[in-house]
Design a protein that fits this description.
The protein is of the alpha/beta class and 284 residues long. The chain has 9 helices and 8 strands. It has an 8-stranded mixed sheet with strand order 1-2-4-3-5-6-7-8, sandwiched between helices. The longest helix is centred in the C-terminal third of the chain and has 16 residues.
Length: 284
């Protein structure tokens, strides 16, 4: 039985901030790795009705300590997750993540499939990213020019923050790009007040830190997997999620219509119905 509540767990020279809540099989849900805190995922709390969720802030994000050597390699995130599993005394667990957090989950699945009961990948993309990945982001983002709030968000997206305060401000400024409507972006900002970003970890998504790929390994992995994409997601578009889906044998793909990068917030009924149906299917 996992101890419920907040804790700090030492792994690989850092301390990970975790919070354990819920009832059911264990599920690791991590932040996306590039410095954002766990606050942006509060609307995923219904997962706790089906799983004992280990909400985890990755190295250098939220309240977790930063690696003294600046190591934000993909393999190091996976090593942290595996060390956390061992520290918590969990034999096998579900793995889940959103956006680049889904990429972290894919890497863990690829290298520790024997430890995975299943996986939930939300609005993610393949690893490594190919040049089309970045062209797709640019094309979908610039297509939003003229939408309410998006012109300022596009300008903010191009900034290079120099401090944690600037990185946190940038998250708020770019939110309109991540939602289908400005109203949804504004409501999300209010509901997730307290979300922060730490600038040093923003290098996690740089190509040089993707020190290995998982997309070519996933076809050999036998892990029940649900992949959820959103129709209006500019940064992790449906085709990117489809590529991951096609790489994982037997995976279930769900497309949430009329939603951006956070479909559980913009279209909660559609999102939860799709996820629950897919989970039932892969566990049958």
């Amino acid at each position: 039985m996992l101890k419920q509540g907040r804790d700090r767990v030492p792994v690989n020279g850092v301390e990970l901030s975790i919070e354990v809540r819920g009832d059911g099989p264990p599920l690791l849900f991590t932040t996306p790795g590039w410095g954002a805190s766990i606050h942006g995922y509060r609307h995923l709390q219904p997962l706790e009705d089906q799983f004992t969720v280990i909400w985890t802030e990755t190295r250098g994000s939220g309240q977790s300590s930063a690696p003294p050597d600046g190591d934000y390699r993909l393999s190091s995130f996976t090593a942290d997750s595996e060390a956390l599993r061992e520290a918590l005394g969990i034999e096998r667990w579900w793995i889940a993540g959103h956006s680049y957090g889904g990429a972290l989950a894919q890497d863990y699945m690829a290298h520790h499939p024997e430890r995975c009961l299943g996986a939930i990948l939300l609005c993610t993309r393949p690893v490594p990213a190919d040049p089309w990945n970045f062209e797709d982001i640019i094309n979908r983002g610039t297509a939003r020019a003229g939408d309410p709030g998006c012109d300022a968000a596009l300008e903010a997206f191009a900034r290079q923050p120099a401090s944690d305060a600037e990185a946190t401000q940038q998250i708020g400024d770019i939110l309109p790009l991540y939602f289908r409507t400005l109203d949804a972006a504004q409501r999300f900002a209010v509901d997730c007040e307290g979300m922060t970003c730490r600038v040093d970890a923003m290098v996690a998504e740089y190509p040089q830190n993707a020190d290995r790929g998982s997309i070519d390994i996933l076809p050999t992995v036998d892990v029940p997997t649900v992949i959820i994409a959103a129709s209006d997601d500019f940064v992790c578009s449906p085709p990117k999620n489809q590529r991951v889906h096609l790489a994982i044998p037997g995976s279930k793909f769900v497309l949430v219509e009329n939603a951006g990068h956070f479909p559980w917030f913009e279209e909660p009924a559609q999102f939860w119905a799709g996820l629950n149906s897919a989970l039932t299917s892969i566990q049958r």
